[in-house]
Amino acid sequence: MLSLEQVRQSLESAGQSHVLQFWPELCEVERDTLLQELSQLDLKGLKEHCEGAAGAAASPSASLDQHIEPVPPESIGSVKKSDKHSLEQWENEGLLQISGNRVGVLLLAGGQGTRLGVQYPKGMYNVGLPSQKTLYQIQAERIHKIQELADRKYGSKCTIPWYIMTSEFTLAPTEKFLKDNNYFGLEPSNIVMFEQRMIPAVTFDGKVILQSKGKIAMAPDGNGGLYQALVDNKVLEDMKKKGVEYLHVYCVDNILVKMADPVFIGFCVSKGADCGAKVVEKAYPTEPVGVVCRVRGVSQVVEYSEIQPETAELRGPGGELVYSAGNICNHFFTRAFLQEVTETFKDQLKQHVALKKVPFVDSCGNQVTPTKPNGIKMEKFVFDVFSFSRSFVVFEVVREDEFSPLKNADGAATDSPTTARNSLLAQHCRWAMAAGATLLDEHGNTFPPMASVSAGNNPPAQCEISPLISYFGEGLEQLLKGRTLPTPFILDEKRAKELQAQ
Question: Rounded to an integer, what distance in angstroms lies between the CA atom of residue 158 and that of residue 243?
Answer without folding.
Answer: 11
